[in-house]
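Most newcomers find our protein records easier to grasp once they have seen one. Sequence and backbone structure share a record, each on its own labelled line. To make this concrete, we reproduce a full record directly below:
***
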Amino acid sequence: MVSLESKSFDAPDEVRPFTDKGGAQVVKVAGSSVLKVRYEPGWRWSEHVRPIAGTDSCQSTHSLYVLSGRMHLAMNDGTTAEIGPNEVVHIEPGHDAWVLGDEPCITVDFGASPAYAAKNA
């Protein structure tokens, strides 16, 4: 058993591009995937990840820390929220999301499905 493990997003284990407007860097530590995700202005899950996921809405759980930018979240049940820098957010499956404004939204996701935005997953 490893008692200390350190990885850097400067040398990710995997890179997962969206169909356009961003992508995720993945590091695997302690058997879990942690994603640093860059969502470019104009990004929307239903346009840029749905073709990869093949589902009507995002079915991944997310536990995010927002580094920069803003994003709007819309749950399938109609609940909505806006998130921004220095916020910690937990999102259950069944949602759409899109970037607000002209600044990329950058997050660190400690709770995403290991297959989030992975092609052929």
Notes: Residues 14-109 form a domain with the Jelly Rolls fold (CATH 2.60.120.10).
